[in-house]
């Protein structure tokens, strides 16, 4: 039976992604089979975790998913692995606007212990009450170990170590400050690992740091068994029987649990690259355009004639065409990039999207629809983008509420069996 741990932190920016990547890579290099997962609606971190573990990462979302779905997905992910390592999101007890969906909620749902990554920069003895407070905050969340990050000197480490003895929580490691262990970022988060030329070298350095300064054996010893689940994870029904899925740097944001659920339901999946000017298979009765970074590839998409004609052909034969966020942008008439340049898109929805006037929109969404989507009327999703869409005369795809139940502007657009919105759908409500 696989065992599991949740890697969390008191706040964002503490280094938990670096620590998780380094632990995954170090354990893998030591011959262990590790299964990675990410808390919440993140597309970018899972791509890094998967590269480090040599095994695809999944999302476990305690706000959008039911506890039974989370447990079933975690059990499924842990099959064949020795250790399930789940990276948290933000601070341990930070959730959505309604207070739900935190890393602590996930740890409680899975009954897995937490390793707290604490940024030790600019503090010494105060680390003890910080750790003690997090450890005592919820009875159903067990902080079972601490990893100190950005430790300045040997003297600094001694002060921190001495202070932590009063908490009785094991110190698993103290990682020194290393400015070279950093990853490039852009507007939606980290730059994707496939775009970082020296990513493998970065992983080697991170693995070496964790192997040198963290007691990997002690870390593994505090892991708890991942509860078995014989139930299949509840999945949204497939968009069609033969689904063509866009997949490349412009359409990279996919939830693995959706595709796995569609396959389990008997759907046949094929993949194509808009950036390589590939078109969906002519036998596809559904086309899925996931989110990603079309705004970085406007000129390439504008020149992709086969891609656009393939979408038009799919529409004309009655296939369902569904785009999320970046995929929704690609279905419009034009995309205006950050420099103000307009690029022709597929032209299946009469709208223009633009990112030259960036405004961040972020948050969970409860969605209601009456559309050709073969999904339940109520859905849970997430929205995160800097672009905006302007269209007139089309019915929206979704009515939406935020996590606090506050009504939002209706989302997306629908024209026959072509539809999309900025929402990334995660699960049935």
Give structural notes.
By secondary structure, this protein is of the alpha/beta class. It contains twelve helices and 24 strands. The protein has helices at 16-29, 44-53, 67-78, 103-110, 127-136, 154-164, 199-213, 216-221, 256-264, 298-302, 305-316, 326-330, and strands at residues 3-8, 34-39, 58-60, 83-87, 114-119, 143-151, 171-176, 185-186, 189-190, 224-225, 242-246, 268-272, 286-289, 320-324, 334-336, 342-344, 351-354, 361-368, 378-385, 388-391, 399-402, 413-415, 418-421, 424-428. The strands form five sheets. Strands 1, 2, 3, 4, 5, 6, 7 and 10 form an eight-stranded mixed β-sheet that branches. A six-stranded mixed β-sheet has the order 12-11-13-14-23-22, sandwiched between helices. A four-stranded mixed β-sheet has the order 16-15-17-20. The protein is elongated.
Q: End-to-end distance, in Å?
A: 31 Å
CATH superfamily of the largest domain: P-loop containing nucleotide triphosphate hydrolases
Specify the biggest β-sheet: 8 strands, mixed
What is the global morphology?
A: elongated
Q: What is the CATH top level name of the largest domain?
A: Alpha Beta
Would you report the number of β strands?
24
Number of domains: 2
Cofactor: Mg(2+)
Family: Belongs to the CobB/CbiA family. Belongs to the CobB/CobQ family. CobQ subfamily.
EC number: 6.3.5.9
Catalytic activity: hydrogenobyrinate + 2 L-glutamine + 2 ATP + 2 H2O = hydrogenobyrinate a,c-diamide + 2 L-glutamate + 2 ADP + 2 phosphate + 2 H(+)
């Amino acid at each position: 039976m696989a065992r599991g741990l949740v890697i969390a932190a008191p706040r964002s920016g503490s280094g938990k992604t670096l620590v998780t990547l380094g632990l995954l890579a170090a354990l893998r290099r030591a011959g262990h089979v590790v299964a990675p997962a990410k808390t919440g609606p993140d597309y970018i971190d899972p791509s890094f975790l998967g590269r480090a573990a040599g095994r695809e990462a999944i999302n476990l979302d305690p706000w959008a998913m039911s506890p039974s779905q989370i447990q079933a997905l975690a059990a499924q992910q842990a099959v064949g692995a020795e250790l399930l390592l789940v990276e948290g999101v933000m601070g341990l007890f930070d959730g959505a606007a309604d207070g739900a969906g935190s890393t602590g909620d996930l740890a409680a749902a899975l009954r897995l212990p937490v390793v707290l990554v604490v940024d030790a920069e600019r503090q010494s003895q105060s680390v003890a009450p910080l750790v003690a407070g997090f450890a005592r905050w919820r009875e159903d969340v067990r902080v079972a170990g601490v990893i100190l990050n950005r430790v300045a000197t040997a003297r600094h480490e001694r002060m921190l170590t001495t202070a932590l003895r009063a908490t009785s929580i094991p110190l698993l490691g103290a990682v020194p400050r290393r400015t070279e262990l950093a990853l490039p970022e852009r507007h939606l988060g980290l730059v994707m690992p496939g775009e970082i030329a020296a990513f493998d070298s970065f992983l080697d350095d991170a693995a070496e740091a964790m192997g040198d300064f963290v007691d990997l054996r002690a870390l593994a010893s505090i892991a708890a068994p991942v509860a078995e689940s014989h139930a299949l994870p509840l999945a949204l029904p497939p968009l069609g029987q033969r689904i063509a899925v866009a997949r490349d740097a412009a359409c990279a944001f996919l939830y693995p649990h959706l595709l796995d659920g569609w396959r389990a339901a008997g759907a046949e999946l094929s993949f194509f690259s808009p950036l390589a000017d590939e078109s969906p298979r002519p036998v596809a009765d559904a086309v899925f355009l996931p989110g990603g970074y079309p705004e970085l590839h406007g000129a390439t998409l504008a020149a992709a004639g086969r891609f656009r004609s393939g979408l038009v052909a799919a529409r004309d034969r009655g296939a369902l065409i569904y785009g999320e966020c970046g995929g929704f942008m690609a279905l419009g008439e034009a995309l205006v990039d950050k420099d103000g340049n307009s690029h022709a898109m597929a032209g299946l929805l009469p709208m223009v999207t633009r990112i030259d006037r960036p405004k961040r929109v972020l948050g969970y969404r409860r969605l209601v629809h009456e559309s050709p989507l073969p999904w339940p009327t109520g859905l849970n999703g997430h929205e995160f983008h800097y672009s905006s869409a302007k269209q007139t005369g089309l019915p929206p795809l979704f009515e939406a509420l935020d996590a606090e139940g506050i009504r939002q502007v209706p989302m997306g657009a629908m024209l026959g069996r072509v539809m999309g919105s900025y929402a990334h759908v995660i699960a049935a409500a």
